[in-house]
Amino acid sequence: MHLIDVTNSYASLVHSQLNSTDVNYVKVYSLGNTSVIYTESNNAIGIVLENHSRRVRREEFEFVIKRLVKENDPSYQITIDKNQHVLEIHVNK
Predict the structure, then answer these.
(1) Which three-class secondary structure state does DSSP give residue 70?
(2) Alpha carbon distance 30, 7 (integer Å)
């Protein structure tokens, strides 16, 4: 699995996130058919995995946590939509 930085293709999303929320850092990645949106504020890290054609896999979730969260043993909350196409991870700093 590879995370590919596609932030430049989502300039309007990045701009709206920076202007309408308290985040100070936004990155958008592609993980195959799964989009990964990484946001960071002074208090928390937010990661959203979204796949319109299938459920987000556990391996994808674990890979993203390992690659994007730099803490050794992070504590996080997960919110999953009913169809498991969108998964949100919240990590307190």
Answers:
(1) coil
(2) 9
Digitized pLDDT (tens) for each residue of the chain, 93 residues in all: 899 999 999 999 999 999 999 999 999 999 999 999 999 999 999 999 999 999 999 999 999 999 999 877 778 999 999 999 999 999 998
Rounding to the nearest 10 degrees, give the CA dihedral for residues 69, 72, 77, 82: 70
The three-class DSSP label of residue 92 is: strand
User: Which amino acid belongs to residue 17?
Assistant: Q
DSSP state of 9: G
Q: What is the pTM of this model?
A: 0.92
What are the angstrom distances between the C-alpha of 22 and each of 8, 43, 50?
21, 9, 22
Torsion from C-alpha of 25, 33, 57, 37, nearest 10 degrees:
10
